[in-house]
Input
Amino acid sequence: MGGSLSEGLRTVFAVVLSCLVIGFVFMQWSTVKESGNAALTDSNSTITQMDEAKYTQYDATVVTGSEVVNVIKLHSNDKIYVGVNIGGTQRNYIY
Output
């Protein structure tokens, strides 16, 4: 009888220890998952900013001559707005 009680206590101890280990693993996995999601969100934000930078680098800047033509050619597949100032007269174009 003493042997079966000892065997039962070992089994209960093993089950409790297994549950604690599994709980710890899930807790760590959740923390890692949250950190990974935060890193992914930050990297997506950075990629979006870099992607938009090719357009915003020309916002409110004065560009002259062949640089204007090169920008229009560079963005030929995109819809862009170009404001042209000719002798004090502002003309707006959408390409």
Notes: The chain is about 65% helix and 15% strand. The mean pLDDT is 84.
